[in-house]
């Protein structure tokens, strides 16, 4: 299970603390591709709560990003109040009434983090809860029939996508002719090479086997949890991730305690890097001590609700911040109740306390939940700390249709958007014709009635309608 070839590297490095220090300092991560876009904003740039600079796409889109679209509408939230809780990114939005796309230049092929920010605000012209749209990235379907009505008022979706060319295309397609899509902000950031490894351990009731080639699937981040610690905001994460507390996910708790560590986390070559998880994740943990142990096979279990029918990548983060000496902590790790690491011995892997390590597992999504458990092993000592865990991440993996949202392919959605249903089109055109006639009559009457009548929402609809009728 544990890769033995990394052990000599660790002992070699432990003889050279100065070199290690040098490696740590010089390894601060700067992404090659780093596109931050504040959609619908005419301000040249906006600084968010984490001191990041997002460029407005209405006037000052950088050369490395292109927006190709007909009928997009930048919209500003006039009611927007700058409270501490709402990022200034969310007072503007871009509306897509036709299929539209952003193209991001990619200098470094490989995994990229893509974050989409959706904030459903109230606007007099558009009810964002009426939005219904698809979002595609290159050949992957990220969101299928995404609806403003069912989304939370603020949703930030995070994906990890492998980009094999010099650009990444992010497309927004309204579900039907009269629907629209929207987005408030977009982040495209090249990921460090060690963020997603190509192999992992596939776990089910038959046991554990190594699988390869996983880095080319698309991933959606479902859960990212700092076990036993406080919420970590993007400000304290070198990839601007958010880590929530584990409070809502802890299922069974046989007298666990939180552990906190004030010393330095020893990131080492071959172990987890600071980009895999920041100090604030590794300097807190939940531990079970032997004195509180019962007879249960599993001491501590976390549960995460999931949609069945996909594979999931489960990443478990460990850093022994609780043992008094090396060689005193041994425990088992279970995913979905199946033994995933027997007798995990962090001391032998890292040859040091407070040195981070992580293990990746792939499981089939079944029964609507993924569980992670840690428990007593045959090597567990009868005193001291018995088991420990610092963090958990759960990523959904794209299915055989290259989709993260249903058994639909990006191709079939593109085809649908292009072709359309012709008999439906005839009906729509007829209805539009009637509307035009009605609105012309109405307008004449209104104008005759009073010159001072405000008719602000009408012009948009009229131009849209007359466009269609000339098409006829
Ligand atoms: C960043 O982490 C430090 C140390 O844990 C903490 O004191 C600080 O409040 C955090 N800052 C933010 C913005 O979360």
CATH architecture of the largest domain: Sandwich
Name the beta content range. 35-45%
By secondary-structure content and strand pairing, the structural class works out as alpha+beta
Quote the distance from N terminus to C terminus. Answer: 66 Å
Poorly predicted regions are 1-26, 420-426, 448-472
Mean of residue pLDDT values: 83
User: Which ligands does the model contain, each kind named once?
Assistant: 2-acetamido-2-deoxy-beta-D-glucopyranose
What is the molecular shape? elongated
Query: What is the CATH homology-level superfamily of the largest domain?
Result: Galactose-binding lectin
Range of helix content: 10-25%
Largest sheet: 13 strands, mixed
C-alpha Rg, in Å?
26 Å
Tally of strands? 29
Count of discrete domains: 3
In DSSP terms, counting alpha (H) and pi (I) runs of 4 or more, how many helices? Answer: 7
CATH topology of the largest domain: Jelly Rolls
CATH class of the largest domain: Mainly Beta
Architecture overview:
- It is found in: Membrane.
- InterPro entries: ANXUR1/2-like, Malectin-like_Carb-bd_dom.
- With 472 residues, this protein is α+β, with helices and mostly antiparallel strands.
- It folds into 3 domains: 6-27 and 219-397, Jelly Rolls; 34-192, Jelly Rolls; 421-471.
- 17% of the residues lie in helices and 36% in strands.
- The chain contains 7 helices and 29 strands.
- It has helices at 6-14, 17-26, 279-282, 346-350, 410-419, 422-449, 458-471; strands at residues 34-38, 45-47, 53-56, 65-68, 72-76, 92-96, 100-105, 110-119, 132-137, 140-147, 154-163, 167-174, 181-183, 185-190, 200-204, 207-211, 219-226, 244-245, 250-253, 257-260, 284-289, 300-305, 311-318, 331-335, 338-344, 357-364, 369-376, 385-389, 391-397.
- Strands 1, 2, 3, 8, 11, 14, 15, 16, 17, 18, 23, 26 and 29 form a 13-stranded mixed β-sheet that branches. Strands 4-7-12-9-10 form a 5-stranded antiparallel β-sheet, covered by helices on one side. Strands 19-22-27-24-25 form a 5-stranded antiparallel β-sheet, with no helix packed on it.
- Strand 2 (45-47) and strand 3 form a beta hairpin.
- The N and C termini lie far apart (66 Å).
- The protein binds 2-acetamido-2-deoxy-beta-D-glucopyranose (NAG).
- Residues 233, 235-236, 280 line the site of 2-acetamido-2-deoxy-beta-D-glucopyranose.
């Amino acid at each position: 299970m544990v890769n033995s070839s990394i052990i000599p590297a660790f002992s070699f490095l432990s003889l050279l603390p100065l070199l290690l220090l040098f490696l740590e300092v010089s390894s601060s991560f700067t992404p090659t591709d780093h596109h931050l876009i504040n959609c619908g904003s005419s301000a040249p740039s906006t600084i968010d709560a984490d001191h990041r600079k997002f460029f407005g796409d209405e006037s000052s889109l950088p050369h490395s990003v292109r927006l190709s679209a007909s009928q997009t509408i930048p919209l500003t939230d006039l009611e927007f109040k700058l409270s501490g809780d709402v990022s200034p990114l969310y007072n503007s939005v871009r509306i897509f009434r036709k299929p539209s796309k952003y193209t991001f230049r990619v200098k470094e092929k490989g995994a990229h983090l893509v974050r989409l920010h959706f904030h459903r605000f109230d606007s007099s012209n558009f009810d964002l809860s009426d939005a219904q749209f698809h979002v595609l990235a290159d050949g992957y379907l990220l969101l299928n029939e995404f609806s403003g009505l069912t989304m939370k008022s603020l949703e930030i979706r995070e994906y990890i996508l492998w980009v094999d060319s010099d650009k990444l295309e992010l497309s927004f397609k309204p579900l039907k002719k009269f629907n629209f899509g929207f987005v408030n902000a977009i982040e495209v950031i090249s990921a460090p090479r060690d963020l997603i490894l190509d192999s992992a351990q596939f776990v089910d009731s038959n046991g554990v086997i190594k699988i390869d080639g996983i880095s080319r699937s698309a991933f959606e981040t479902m859960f990212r949890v700092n076990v036993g610690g406080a919420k970590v905001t993007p400000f304290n994460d070198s990839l601007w991730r958010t880590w929530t507390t584990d409070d809502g996910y802890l299922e069974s708790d046989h007298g666990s305690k939180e552990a906190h560590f004030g010393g330095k986390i020893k990131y080492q070559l071959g172990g987890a890097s600071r980009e895999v998880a920041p100090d604030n994740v590794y300097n807190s943990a939940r531990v079970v001590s032997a004195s509180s142990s019962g007879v249960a096979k599993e001491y501590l279990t976390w549960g995460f609700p999931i949609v069945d029918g996909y594979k999931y990548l489960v990443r478990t983060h460990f850093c022994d911040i609780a043992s008094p000496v090396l060689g005193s902590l041994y425990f088992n790790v279970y995913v979905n109740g199946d033994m995933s690491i027997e007798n995990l011995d962090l001391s032998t892997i890292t040859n040091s306390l407070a040195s981070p390590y992580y293990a990746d597992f792939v499981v089939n999504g079944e029964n609507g939940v993924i569980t992670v458990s840690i428990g007593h092993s045959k090597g567990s000592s009868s005193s001291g700390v018995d088991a420990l865990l610092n963090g958990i991440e759960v990523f959904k993996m794209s299915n055989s249709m290259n989709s993260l949202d249903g058994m639909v392919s990006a191709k079939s959605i593109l085809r649908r958007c292009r072709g359309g249903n012709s008999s439906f089109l005839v009906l729509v055109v007829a209805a539009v014709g009637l509307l035009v006639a009605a609105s012309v009559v109405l307008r004449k009457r209104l104008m005759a009635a009073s010159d001072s009548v405000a008719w602000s929402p009408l012009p948009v609809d009229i131009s849209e309608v007359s466009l269609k009728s000339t098409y006829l």
